[in-house]
Amino acid sequence: xxxxxxxxxxxxxxxxxxRRDPGRNHDTFLAGTDxxxxxxxxxxxxxxLQHYDAIREMARLGTLGAGVVAVHAPTGALAGRVxxxxxxxxxxxxxxxxxxxxDLVLPHGGLSLRHLALVVPKGPDGPPRFxxxxxxxxxxxDSRLGQPIGGAFxxxxxxxxxxxYALFTFATGAPEHWPESATEAWAxxxxxxxxxxxxxxxxxxxxxxxxxxxxxxxxxxxxxxTSEAMLEPGATRxxxxxxxxxxxxLRLALDEAALGRGVxxxxxxxxxxxxxxxxxxxxxxxxxxxxxxxxIVAIDTAxxxxxxxxxxxxxxxxxxxxxxxxVAHLGDGLGVVRLG
Length: 340
Known about the structure:
Layout: E1 10-14, H1 44-50, H2 52-59, E2 65-72, E3 77-85, E4 92-97, E5 104-105, E6 116-120, E7 129-134, E8 141-143, E9 148-149, E10 151-155, E11 157-162, E12 165-172, H3 182-193, E13 197-198, H4 201-205, E14 216-220, E15 239-245, E16 248-254, H5 256-261, E17 263-265, E18 287-292, E19 295-300, E20 307-308, E21 319-321, E22 328-330, E23 335-339
Parallel strand pairs: 4-5, 13-14
Antiparallel strand pairs: 1-3, 2-3, 2-12, 4-6, 6-7, 7-10, 8-9, 8-11, 10-14, 11-12, 15-16, 15-23, 17-18, 18-19, 19-21, 20-22, 22-23
């Protein structure tokens, strides 16, 4: 796995016997009823040292992208790994959750069906960085210090906890950051992830020269709540999101703050379009619309019936670039999302 020439755009390894099953649906998890969480969790350092070989193997990929190694914290078992490449034409993404259509399937452990999005910006080069975005779930996402956060902007590497799992996340394309010694690597990683700060959207979007890049984890807010104003009084409208499902229509005026946080679309109550998407073939959480640097994208959050750029497409796509004029078609022509 060390810098293969034709690595593709996605690597997935499920290490606890999970299965990715596109045809299967799942029941909603009820918080507080999962015996999977009843045991004490091992500290990050012990888990990192135990599984450093697996972490290092993926983290040293010479291709720009981002990866996640998940470890079951109560037992120390390696649960799974996922890596996505930085694409030259559009952002790329992977979904972590309990649903078998997720890229990284993590059974039980307090996770929602679609829990977390790993988002990698586009571009042929640039500093190793990526975003984690929690999909407004009950279980949430915690920093390594136990702070509940809505997401994080990560440069080089970051440590997080979700349910009963420790997540070791990292950007690839800079193998020099990952020495052979696990203890040396932990000393570097621990120093990068102690301070957490909230960063402004304009600061996140401003690229830094590679020589000035500081390895860091910065807290960001998660997708906007349905009860919040998507266009604050006095704010400038960045775009209008047009959503259609049969005869039902919805227009959402979004400012830059809302776009930076993201908007969830689906038929679940935590989505901003629940009253529009009534068909069961639309997933409970189907799409995340969010700005990724200079792109406004619709990210398929491991929906059962997929997202397509055209009704005639045979293969679904993970990311649709709405800002380039592309249209996201949900399921079998059941919904349409575009920019106005």
